[in-house]
């Protein structure tokens, strides 16, 4: 028991002598510069999504992926297809369960092209 007390006292007496003074964390390297392009242009051709229509109206289309039924996407229409989609909806439009293919840019929710037959209005 006495040996432990002597060992503890020796450690406590040696620790202030061995302590190293803390220094501030200073970096001397150059800062990292992040450059972003001033105009972002889509470099990809886009992705096609095979899907099934859940809901469609004159401004948006909500679809479920055919490969993964839990993935639901909502797309708005690009200005190029807006008039064509308005004509389709005037004639009855897409109904629940219609199969469509949607061309879109990854990371965006704008449909650039939609292919697929709308079902007959009842």
Set out the fold topology.
Elements: H1 2-18, E1 47-56, E2 60-65, E3 72-77, H2 79-90, E4 99-104, E5 110-115
Parallel strand pairs: 3-5
Antiparallel strand pairs: 1-2, 1-4, 2-3, 4-5
Molecular structure report:
The mean pLDDT is 84. The protein has a domain at 47-115: OB fold (Dihydrolipoamide Acetyltransferase, E2P) (Beta Barrel). It has 122 residues and is of the alpha+beta class. It has helices spanning 2-18, 79-90, and strands spanning 47-56, 60-65, 72-77, 99-104, 110-115. 11% of the residues are buried. Strands 1-2-3-5-4 form a five-stranded mixed beta barrel. Helices cover 24% and strands 28% of the residues. It is built from two helices and five strands; from the N terminus they run H-E-E-E-H-E-E. It is elongated, with a radius of gyration of 32 Å.
CATH architectural grouping of the domain at 47-115: Beta Barrel
Number of helix segments? 2
Distance separating the two termini: 95 Å
Number of beta-strand segments: 5
Short descriptors:
single chain, 122 residues, alpha+beta, OB fold (Dihydrolipoamide Acetyltransferase, E2P), five-stranded mixed barrel, 2 helices
Can you give me a brief rundown of this structure?
With 122 residues, this protein is α+β, with helices and mostly antiparallel strands. It is built from two helices and five strands, in the order αβββαββ.
């Amino acid at each position: 028991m006495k040996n432990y007390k002597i060992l503890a006292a020796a450690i406590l007496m040696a620790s202030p002598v061995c302590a190293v003074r803390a220094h501030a964390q200073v970096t001397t390297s150059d800062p990292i510069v992040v450059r972003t392009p001033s105009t972002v242009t889509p470099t990809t051709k886009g992705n096609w999504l095979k899907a099934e229509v859940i809901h469609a109206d004159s401004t948006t289309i909500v679809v479920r992926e055919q490969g993964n039924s839990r993935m639901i996407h909502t797309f708005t229409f690009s200005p190029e297809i807006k008039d064509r989609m308005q004509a389709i909806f005037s004639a009855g439009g897409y109904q629940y369960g219609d199969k469509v293919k949607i061309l879109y840019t990854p990371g965006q929710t704008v449909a650039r092209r939609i292919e697929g037959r709308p079902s007959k209005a009842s």
